[in-house]
Specification:
Residues 29-77 form the RING-type domain. Residues 121-157 form the B box-type domain. By secondary structure, the protein is an alpha+beta fold. The chain is 43% helix and 17% strand. Among the domains are: 24-58 and 69-87, 2-Layer Sandwich (Herpes Virus-1), CATH 3.30.40.10; 232-336; 366-529, Jelly Rolls (Sandwich). The protein starts with a helix and ends with a strand.
Length: 530
């Protein structure tokens, strides 16, 4: 640039104009369409004025940097972190040089700036009425006839300006739409977060109240049992005291009589004969009746308490096992949900947004459809027709069961799709292994290689074996998300509107699996959503 500054004449001016046209695209911010002011680069590689990207990312009440999460690049929509903005000194230098030599094509200068450069062709002195799309600069009619531009796409200057304005307006409209969508999404997220926090508070209070009631109940029952044991102990002690007193009296009396009889037996004969009848008479009522044994009377009462304690132990053991099992099951389901739909996993940090957060593109495979099934033209929905269609035979077609597979199968990874379901009975969907039997009547069971959700008899079912599992999803299902995790060995179903967990099959996958759909009633349908 310093060398150009020392040259003069038409050639130097033409070179400066060409250089300005070439550098202008690289030194212009795509947001404000002006030469860069304090340019910064983001993680995807695009650069913007620092103030422009700050305004674009601005959120009311929240500072732009550091940001709580990644925000989209205004140009390519890739996620970028505002905290990772890097000054781009090279672009800043180019923009500064363009301003120094008045080569900015914006025409905002008030001296011999860009306005004087674009008013006429420096090389030919003719007005700049044309625009060369290949070179990206304005030219005159003489330049248009020159060999340099003969094969180039050239437009009248006003048409080029109009086309550029239309492109700008289109881009601006798209950006405004994106902004509106992000603002709507932000509002929805805030609303849902408030509702979820409110629900969490309510559930926390419910849990506290339930466990408080449980503790009060257990304390009451403990008090009853301990009180009964204490009462029994007092009764045993009292009876023991009474028996010991009675036995003591009898023993004392017997000891006295024994002594008297021994003394009488040693008296002289005449004295002995006179006293022995009296002595024997005092023995007629001694000893008295023995008191009832403490052990025999209290044994049944102690046994009853022991039996209650044994039953209580069994009940508490079962209660703890059931409670622990339910909580562990909930933890597993939550972990599976987290693996599919949330969390900043290492893979997410390394590769960006998780691919399984986006539904897979699915269509129905007409070569597998039972002849009674009617598929939509876009191969997204299926219903049951009144009679079989005349379809060519195909070894992959279900000839008896009214089923159809998707055209795409999976052998690894995590995938999900959503299914819009009819409100009437007669549908089932899920996944099936590739080798599932296509000919003859086969049941819906995991042994047959089918893992599915079903609506039958007004009741939702998981088609488990040997018996189906009754489900209570908490209301009528309108759209269901199917989450397939081949590494974890799981097929999970969620209510799509609030991601409420419905059921999870645990499976060891050994072959390719395909999404499966079945309709056995003319009053309902299934549709791959959207």
């Amino acid at each position: 640039m310093a060398a150009l500054g020392q040259r003069s004449g038409p050639t130097a001016g033409a070179e400066a104009l060409a250089l300005a046209a070439e550098l202008h695209g690289e030194a212009t911010c795509s947001i404000c369409l002006e030469l860069f002011q304090d340019p910064v680069s983001i993680e995807c590689g695009h650069s913007f004025c620092r103030s422009c990207i700050a305004r674009c990312w601005e959120r009311p009440g929240i500072p732009v940097s550091p940001a709580p999460r990644a925000l989209p690049c205004p140009q390519c929509r890739e996620p970028a972190r505002p905290s990772q903005l890097r000054p781009n000194r090279q672009l800043a230098g180019v923009a500064s040089l363009l301003r120094r030599y008045s080569l900015s094509p914006s025409g905002d200068g008030d001296g011999e700036g860009a306005g004087s450069l674009v008013s006429g062709c420096i090389q030919h002195g003719e007005p700049l009425k044309l625009y060369c799309q290949d070179d990206g600069r304005a030219i005159c009619v003489v330049c248009d006839r020159a060999r340099e531009h003969r094969a180039h796409a050239v437009l009248p200057l006003d048409e080029a300006v109009q086309e550029a304005k239309e492109m700008l307006e289109s881009r601006l409209g798209a950006l405004k739409k994106e902004l509106e969508e992000f603002e709507d999404f932000k509002s929805m997220e805030e609303k849902e977060s408030r509702e979820l926090l409110k629900q969490v508070t309510v559930e926390r209070e419910k849990v506290g109240a339930e466990f408080q009631a449980l503790r009060a109940f257990l304390m009451e029952q403990e008090s009853r049992l301990v009180g009964r044991l204490e009462e029994l102990a007092r009764e045993v002690t009292q009876r023991q005291t009474e028996n010991l007193n009675q036995l003591g009296s009898e023993i004392s009396l017997l000891s006295k009589l024994t002594t008297e009889m021994e003394e009488t037996s040693h008296k002289p004969d005449l004295d002995f004969l006179q006293e022995f009848k009296n002595t024997l008479g005092r023995c007629d009522n001694v000893p008295g009746p023995k008191p009832a044994s403490v052990s025999s009377e209290m044994k049944s009462k102690v046994w009853n308490i022991s039996l209650k304690t044994f039953v209580l132990k069994g009940l508490l053991k079962k209660f703890k096992e059931d409670l622990r099992g339910e909580l562990e099951k909930e933890e597993k389901d939550r972990s599976l949900y987290q693996a599919h739909w949330g969390g900043e996993t290492e893979e997410r940090k390394k590769h960006g947004p998780c691919p399984w957060r986006t539904p897979v593109e699915l269509t129905l495979d007409p070569d597998t459809a039972n002849p009674r099934l009617i598929l939509s033209l876009d191969l997204k929905s299926v219903r049951l027709g009144p009679r079989p269609q005349d379809l060519p035979p195909n070894p992959r077609r279900f000839d008896t069961n009214t089923r159809v597979l998707a055209s795409r199968g999976f052998t690894s990874g995590r995938h999900h799709w959503e299914v819009e379901v009819g409100s009437a009975d007669g549908w089932a969907f899920g996944v099936a292994r590739e080798s599932v039997r296509r000919k003859g009547l086969t049941p819906f069971t995991p042994e047959e290689g089918v893992w599915a959700l079903q609506l039958n008899g007004g009741q939702y079912w998981a088609v488990t074996s040997p018996e189906r599992t009754s489900l209570s999803p908490g209301g009528r299902l309108a759209r269901v998300r199917v989450a397939l995790d081949l590494e974890a060995g799981a097929v999970s179903f969620y209510a799509a509107e609030d991601m409420r967990h419905i059921y999870t099959f645990r499976v060891t996958f050994r072959e390719r699996v395909f999404p499966l759909f079945s309709v056995c009633s003319t009053g309902t349908y299934l549709r791959i959503w959207p």
